[in-house]
């Protein structure tokens, strides 16, 4: 970010734009992420949309996550060319804004979606009967729509402002690497923008996610038996993958961005090279998300085995049957308070379900 609206940059910013570590590292990382994430998320989307019926709330959240990852992957070629050409943007102002919004919407959509998955799992394990009415598909759809509405509002400044900048010293045009202070009208609006990204879109969802998985695992351990031991193991793996994504992919970028912007605004100091390197770390969640599907959905886990030539074991089939019967019993109990016709239909639906708890 610039200190003022002059046409000349300070020496630190010019040095950052000429930093060879960034110029060489980012295209390599983005290329590797694209090669891994595109096939992985296409496969995930195929399984989630075509081979898991009926679609549970968790599956709806996973579909949202997979679509977001593929949308971000479509932006990688623009970023790769940009850095290969020495941080020179050749695609125009509107594409710059689109790519920038896509990068940040992917990260924060992933964070909020993972939080929704953790809450849905927590409610299903700790309050399976009391809060069953909140674990419905329409609420999952509403949550996904709500996530995107929140993101469009929060990222509105990035979508509507010109994020390109003509660097006369280097004869290049940057994209979201140099920002004018007057991109937002006042310091208060800058503060609101930064706090929204860091506190409401990262820190609070992270705390909620950790708390939900701790509560879920504790409940499973308390009710542990032979069958639940398998579920507890899968829940621990799932919690570990989610926490790995938060700590490795999201935390470094969000903390460094927050520190960088505060120091740049008030103390004229920059952490931008470190921020750019952690930004590519945030894209690694595209590669890790399919592992979340693997541990979060029994059906995804089984389809993965089938596609890659591993037979589903008898114990896995028995688990599915137990879970289907459990789902039927849950819906039957619910039907006692909802009327005979609704209850019969609910039992019919649940007898077809193969939803896993973890």
From TrEMBL:
It holds the Pfam family 7tm_1. It is a multi-pass membrane protein. Its main location: membrane. Residues 40-293 form the G-protein coupled receptors family 1 profile domain. The chain crosses the membrane at residues 28-48, 60-81, 101-119, 139-159, 190-215, 236-262. One of its GO terms (cellular component) is plasma membrane. PANTHER family: G-PROTEIN COUPLED RECEPTOR, P2Y PURINOCEPTOR 8. This is P2Y receptor family member 8. It comes from Crocodylus porosus. The gene is P2RY8.
């Amino acid at each position: 970010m610039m200190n003022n609206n002059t046409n000349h940059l300070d020496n630190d910013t010019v040095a950052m734009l000429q930093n060879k570590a960034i110029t060489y590292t980012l295209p390599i990382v983005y290329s590797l992420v694209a090669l891994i994430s595109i096939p992985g998320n296409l496969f995930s989307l195929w399984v989630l949309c075509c081979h898991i019926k009926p679609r549970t709330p968790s599956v709806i959240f996973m579909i949202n996550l997979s679509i977001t990852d593929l949308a971000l992957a479509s932006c990688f070629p623009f970023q790769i060319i940009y850095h290969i050409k020495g941080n020179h943007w050749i695609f125009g102002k509107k594409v710059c804004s689109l790519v920038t919004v896509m990068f940040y919407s992917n990260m924060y959509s992933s964070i909020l979606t993972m939080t929704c998955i953790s809450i849905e799992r927590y409610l299903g394990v700790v309050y399976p009967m009391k809060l069953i009415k909140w674990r419905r598909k329409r609420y999952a759809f509403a949550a996904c729509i709500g996530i995107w509405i929140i993101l469009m509002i929060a990222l509105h400044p990035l979508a509507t402002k010109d994020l390109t900048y003509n660097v006369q010293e280097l004869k290049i045009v940057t994209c979201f690497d140099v920002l004018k202070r007057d991109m937002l009208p006042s310091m208060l609006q800058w503060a609101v923008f930064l706090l929204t990204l860091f506190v409401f879109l990262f820190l609070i969802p992270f705390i909620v996610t950790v708390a939900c998985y701790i509560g879920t695992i504790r409940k499973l351990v308390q009710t542990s038996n032979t069958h639940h031991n398998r579920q507890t193991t899968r829940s621990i793996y799932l919690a570990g993958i989610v926490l790995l994504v938060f700590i490795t992919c999201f935390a470094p970028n969000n903390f460094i961005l927050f520190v960088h912007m505060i120091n740049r605004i008030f103390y004229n100091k920059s952490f931008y090279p470190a921020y750019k390197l952690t930004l590519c770390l945030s894209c690694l969640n595209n590669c890790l998300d399919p592992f979340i599907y693997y541990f979060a959905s029994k059906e995804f886990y089984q389809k993965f085995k089938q596609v890659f030539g591993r037979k589903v074991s008898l114990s896995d089939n028995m688990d599915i049957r137990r879970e289907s019967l459990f789902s039927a019993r849950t819906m039957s109990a619910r039907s006692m308070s909802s009327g005979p016709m609704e209850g019969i239909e609910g039992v019919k639906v649940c007898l077809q379900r193969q939803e896993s708890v973890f």
